[in-house]
From TrEMBL:
It catalyses: N-terminal L-arginyl-[protein] + L-leucyl-tRNA(Leu) = N-terminal L-leucyl-L-arginyl-[protein] + tRNA(Leu) + H(+); L-phenylalanyl-tRNA(Phe) + an N-terminal L-alpha-aminoacyl-[protein] = an N-terminal L-phenylalanyl-L-alpha-aminoacyl-[protein] + tRNA(Phe); N-terminal L-lysyl-[protein] + L-leucyl-tRNA(Leu) = N-terminal L-leucyl-L-lysyl-[protein] + tRNA(Leu) + H(+). GO terms for cellular component: cytoplasm. Belongs to the L/F-transferase family. It is found in: Cytoplasm. This is Leucyl/phenylalanyl-tRNA--protein transferase. GO terms for molecular function: leucyl-tRNA--protein transferase activity. Functions in the N-end rule pathway of protein degradation where it conjugates Leu, Phe and, less efficiently, Met from aminoacyl-tRNAs to the N-termini of proteins containing an N-terminal arginine or lysine. GO terms for biological process: protein catabolic process. Its EC number is 2.3.2.6. The keyword Acyltransferase applies. HAMAP family: Leu_Phe_trans. Its main location: cytoplasm.
Amino acid sequence: MVPWLASDDPFPPVERALGEASGAPGLLAASAELQSSRLIDAYQHGIFPWYSDGQPVLWWSPDPRMVLIPDEFKVSDSLRKTLRRVLKDAAWEIRVDHDFAGVMRACAQTPREGQRGTWITADIVEAYSSLHRDGRAHSIESWFEGRRVGGLYGVSFGRMFFGESMFAHRTDASKIALAALVGHLRHHKIEMIDCQQNTSHLASLGGREITRKAFLRHLRYAVFEPPIPWQFDKSALLATLGVNAES
């Protein structure tokens, strides 16, 4: 039985999440509302919301957990060429937190294989925008000739980044944003990006699964470390990946 949480109820221990045989592995709890205070508590305990319009708020803590270790990020030859071009071409910009809500809406409108509709509901946009206003959620955006053509958003606590979603309206635009994020996190010695659930796309970029226990062990100290800055330029970012305009 999945517990129903009243507004003041704490989350149950994540070890009580449904198992593989349940048909909804990782489902931990449900609630009627998505409050920003609840969202903060969830991330600090390795829990995230994922649901569709018409459903209650569903809270998850899967085992295993998909993560991307910044030092393991895979830069293919074709992506490396693209990043070099981005560095040289003034038409390309990497912007941070320029249009957070716009990035969320673009992610919501991007079709996903095997997925009908979107989990990025109006309530999700409002809740994460509240975190953004408090400096706890960020967008990394790829801009070309003054137009936002790709990006991603996620939540940042201390020395931990929780990736949420990405989109691309131009070839490799989301990968450019991800490379910029990875470079920034590597520069600040961030050891892990939470990717939540396994996809072939993330695996192709170096993502891998770890046990929930290992994920929570890292989380317990990482989220309470001092926060990192969120202002950067594309040259400093991409140089940390061994990419520069002349190479």
